[in-house]
Design goal:
Elements lengths: L28 E6 L7 H9 L5 E4 L10 H4 L2 E2 L13 E5 L5 E5 L11 H9 L4 E5 L6 E6 L2 E6 L12 E8 L2 E8 L5 E8 L1
Parallel strand pairs: 1-2, 2-3, 5-6, 6-8
Antiparallel strand pairs: 1-9, 4-5, 7-8, 9-10, 10-11
Length: about 200
């Protein structure tokens, strides 16, 4: 079942090293972010089953799957460059109760293969600018803060291009911080981890 996002907060500090990450306690809001499965269904099914209690499932494009498939109905999804004739929007902008925005796009229209500068330029044209940008396309993990905006690329759940694992992201919002994990789809173990104070 699709679930709308209710609350995000802007982050203002750099990532902390994994050695200083505090464990997450109950009461967090859990958001699962995937991208670039390119027809491969088993990874999506594994994510939905393993994180059945998650609050939201977001897909950054290139699913190559029809939106009316039961598997895809659980995700809020955008159109990627290989999602020919599929009935997804190019972008999803989620308006938050706080007035902030979450902007999700595949990224190919913004030259993300060369960095995120064009994404940020587009974000700055929005009024108000998004607090969070989610994108895919590169098949490479990217988690950072730029110009006060949190940017997350979960990598590819099927075909990684950075010589590492098939990955997805878990974003948890807890009272005092954001906690972001990049997970291996094979065993759901943490590959990279970040946290930002709220």
């Amino acid at each position: 079942m699709k679930k709308p996002l209710e609350k995000f907060f802007n982050l203002n500090t750099d990532e902390k090293s994994i050695e200083n990450i505090e464990p997450v306690k109950d009461g967090s809001l859990e958001i699962i972010i995937v991208s670039d499965n390119h027809l491969e269904k088993s990874g999506l099914a594994k994510v939905l089953k393993y994180h059945a209690g998650a609050d939201y499932f977001l897909h950054c494009g290139d699913s190559n799957l029809q939106p009316n498939l039961d598997l895809m109905k659980s995700f809020i999804t955008v159109r990627g460059n290989t999602d020919f004739l599929l009935d997804y929007e190019n972008d999803e902008v989620i308006e938050l109760a706080t007035g902030e925005k979450v902007w999700m796009t595949h990224g190919h229209r913004f030259s993300v293969g060369f960095g995120t500068d064009h994404l940020l330029t587009q974000a700055e044209l929005m009024n108000p600018s998004p607090a969070i940008i989610l994108y895919g396309h590169t098949h490479k993990v990217d988690v950072k803060m730029q110009k006060g905006i949190l940017i997350i690329n979960p990598g590819s759940i099927a075909f990684p291009r950075d010589g590492t694992h098939r990955t997805y992201a878990k974003l948890q919002i807890i009272p005092e911080r954001y906690h972001i994990q990049i997970l291996n789809i094979r065993n759901h173990k943490v590959v990279k981890e970040f946290q930002f104070p709220r």
